[in-house]
Specification:
There is one protein chain. The protein is of the alpha+beta class. It has a single domain, classed as Jelly Rolls, CATH 2.60.120.10. It contains two helices and eleven strands. The strands form three sheets. The protein has a six-stranded mixed beta sheet. Strand 6 and strand 7 form a beta hairpin. The radius of gyration is 15 Å and the shape is globular. The two termini are 28 Å apart.
Length: 163
């Protein structure tokens, strides 16, 4: 199951408070508890920019990207980006929040590191940038992490990450 994704298909996209509220509402209504507004024309585009809303109980399975970089700019809410070694041991935790929160508000990852997010607020909204084109094979899920459908294992895993 994939998170809901919207492609506006316009040359000029303006993110208003009303549009941001719609993306957050879509995330709240989705089983995966996240929604993505793509600012690029489509999956084949060489640069992908997205506004992504997450609910606190969203699970983003730990993963890494082959030959890709990504960056997050926090628009609203707070989240931690957690990095792991190959055995699943936490190696670093970045605490991110919007400008003025006292936390870092931007990060860029150019390595092949395992990572995930944990929300610290009921919702969080990010501006994410990565290089395209989209190819699901470019994302490798950590073999030591639970699959999204295993609710009990996911709950236990997320509990460990929030300690």
């Amino acid at each position: 199951m994939a998170a809901v994704t919207y492609f506006p298909g316009a040359d000029l996209i303006v993110i208003t408070p009303a549009l941001l509220a719609q993306v957050k509402q879509a995330a709240a209504e989705e089983p995966l508890r996240r929604a993505r507004l793509c600012l690029h024309p489509g999956p084949a585009d060489p640069l992908h920019e997205m506004v992504v809303a997450f609910c606190r109980d969203a699970y983003l399975r730990p993963h890494r990207h082959r030959g890709k970089s990504e960056s997050f700019h926090i628009i609203e809410g707070e989240l931690d980006v957690i990095f792991f070694d190959d055995s699943g041991r936490i190696t670093r935790r970045l605490e991110l929040g919007p400008v003025g929160s006292g936390r870092a508000f931007f990060y860029r990852l150019a390595s092949h590191a395992w990572h995930t997010i944990v929300l610290r607020t009921e919702t969080a909204v990010i501006h994410e940038t990565t290089n395209g084109p989209f190819n699901p094979a470019d994302c490798e899920f950590a073999p030591w992490s639970p699959a999204p459908g295993d609710r009990a294992a996911v709950a236990a895993f997320m509990q460990r990450l929030t300690q």
